[in-house]
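Workshop exercise sheet. Pairs work together: one partner reads the sequence aloud, the other fills in the structure field after running the prediction. Swap roles for the next sheet.
Pair: D.N. / O.F.
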Amino acid sequence: MIQRFLLLVLFIFGFHFLSNSCTSIIISGKYTKDGRPLMWKNRDTWALNNKLMYFNDGKYKYVGLVNSVDTLGKSIWIGYNESGFAIMNTASYNINEPSDKTKLSGFEGRLMKQALQTCKTIEDFENLLNNLPKPTKLAANYGVIDANGGAAYFELGNYKIEKIDVNDPKVAPMGYVIRTNYSYTGTPDKGHGYFRYLSAEKLFYQASAEDNLTEQFILQQVSQSLYHSLLDNDLKQNPPSEQETKFVPFIDYIPRSGTSSATVISGVKRGENPEFTTMWTYLGFSLTSAVVPVWIKGGNKLPVIAQYDDKLEDAPLCYKALKLKELCFPVIRGHGKDYLKLNALYNSQGTGIMQKLKPLNDKLFEETHKKLAYWRKNGWSKKQVQDYYQWLDTYIEGEYQKLFGI
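Structure field:
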């Protein structure tokens, strides 16, 4: 019983020794294809079971990604509120000085919840950080956007706060800033995620040159990238046949065996109704999941497939994605989780799990973009959003059953 309680506490608060590692980006709306800012977090953690939750317990209503075992939603790992303010984080393993022995709290998710409850602008969040007691007992890169076009990272340690303005061309000449698990103001060559950073940089640089910085590009081409910057190798090139059992080491790719979700929050243009801020999420393993868009306009009735299910003890979509993940990482002994069965995920016949899911995700993006275009022009209602959620639930459930029998 005690052991179960300790595991529950660890999952809820996400302590650093669980090796939380994430890859993220903020893109200024000045550089995206549709003029709206984007923020993305590919979440890597031992808390593999995730859900979406709607909250009305603060100054602002908000939606966030929550660990499935966190029944009260005490910690948020990425989310946005009705004012158009959005926030995410990546753990930083070099922000605090090596000589700083302050015990970290692991409460990064609690701070994000507080920010969503109370903040409307980046300036509000900066004030919140400045008023934290010192030492903060935190170590993170916080990413934020707001409905005024603001876009920034804050590198936060026990005694330091450094703002990185993504709208500043001197800081972000290509219009974006990437952060993994080290801070630029931290100890050089310490921390984690250097190879993931370089992989992401290559992909985003090319997309920027092609004017293709969109939420669909990020979730389908970056969160699902099989490119490794150090090896200069893309596993999608010359894939094995379906019949050929092919295991490959799967370490330091953008998606990893510990990836538990991938989320893009698409903000609004200056002067646009912040209600149209959109949160797109792969729950569970990003390579085997389907994208679910949500809006605060829909109220507390989020898509059923993304909400906690008492019977499954997880969100149904997360459960399905993790079931398919087992086929990709079937070796459970030793360090089997570090070896991907590539032919199950991606093969030359086009029958890999990720390949089968691509038409499904293409359809979800297409239909959602149509809805958004119509709603922006003609207005929308809570019922219209909830009706669309029902279609999402039916379509995604039906496709997973048809394709995989789950």
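Discussion prompt: The mean pLDDT is 95. What would you look at next?
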